[in-house]
Records
---
Amino acid sequence: MRENVFIASKTDKRDRDGSLREIEKSLKRLKTDYLDLWQIHHLKNIEEVERAAASDGVLKALIEMKEQGVVKNLGFTGHDHPDALLSMMKKYPFDTVLMPINAGDVHMEKSFINDVVTEANWKRMGIIGMKVFSQGFMFHPDGITTAWEPLIYALSQNISTIIVGCDTAEQLEENVAIVKRFQKLTNYQQTEIEKRTESYLERSNFFRREFGGYESKDKLEDPFSI
């Protein structure tokens, strides 16, 4: 069974020793002796990147585990600001990057889609999209109203795959049905979907540093309940 499953995990530690303790616990809980992908979780800014890449930083642990065969691929994640991810790419030839991919992102001055995706593709990295629904805040009665729009928009970008959170089995089934019928959107269709998010950028990008990060989530109201 193990060889048919791709297991990805993360560490939110920024030091070598703390990260090694984490992966040891993860391997025991998962009852496996290797991970297919190990990622540095949620790099917020340049300072965290520098700490992670220091001689005693988490990157040291990642490299050691890959050299020992405990980990097959190395990656990192982030959603606060594109600059942190662009900076981390320069520290090591990573295999993957996990970042926000949604229709509201392109309106930001520094965009994950326009800036990070381009660089990651040039480096031939696997690109994993997240925040596709922005935890539901992507939806708005005056903007995006269906699951089809954000899902197909994200998959139409030059990326490898997306991860999507679900609250119910029904949502999962709907997402699978949409993806099974996937056809890449034209540039015109993508632009039309992007336009629908222009009036509520703080909702679709609530997790970004510009809008207060996750602290802003509690301040947002569900427009469908108004």
---
Amino acid sequence: MNRSHHPKLTVLMSVYNGMPYVRDAVCSILHQSFHDYVFLIINDGSTDGSGQYLDTLDDSRVRVVHQRNRGLGAALNIGLSSVETEYIARMDADDISLPNRLSVQLEVMEREPDLVMLGCGLAFTVDGVKYGHPPPMPTTNDQVVSILYAGGHGISHPTIFCRAAAMRQAGGYRIQGVGQDWDLLLRMTEIGRVANLAEVYYLMRLHQESNTWKSAEQSIRGNAYALTCTRCRQGGQPEPDTETFFAQWLDRPLLQRLESFCRARADGLYRQGVLRMLKGERLSGFGCLGMAALICPPKLIMRLRRIGMTRFVRMVCHGRRTV
């Protein structure tokens, strides 16, 4: 890359034991229709050959930083501290960005200077196959904020394209552990307008090894902390430190702890059901969804409202139908 040239965009990705999926993630960025960017990859202490693979990448846009394992938030903060471009686009090491993602998001951000963060629609991928009927994303600022404040997925963290100055103003990633993305997204909404593109430009890989499939309880706890901090800021109150909050979380009344356990179990079963149905295993998929409904009916109802009953039925009936 010409040293006198300064790209506007850095694509920021952290990798921890990302094999074999990291190859597809990297290729999806290197083959974007928009080419003028820095691809900053933080190898967060991988032990599965990911670091060696990253060192083989022969592309002037790629910068690889190797460090001991410190966790996703810490790794992304290392990347944020060295970003010199106006914009940052996030990318997860097991997902796929569709070819026009960066060009479309950049065009919108350039056209709307009051927009500080822009996500996009996503679809699921299993075994390299794209699946249709994705969950619709809210498109307006008010819709995104409302869903985030209600504890829902108002914007998907790995799809975001944001102004680097706004991310720094928000303080980067503060929580080390599950909930760090939610905390950042909530603070970004306090800085300026946010939105999603309705169109699908990102494929989220569903697989058993994905962290989001293993940490439903930690996710509920981390998101609760992020929301509590948000309410404290809004009320002019000091935010609790993580140790105090998590200690109080574990010491909650039995019924509240039971509710969280049921929500976490239902969330895991729901995701397992979606994964199985998308792989064509509809009978076992229905079984998981049925168990999720029995354990926590409000959770399933909330998801069905968001997806839409028609979309849900079509997804179930068509199974492997592609986007």
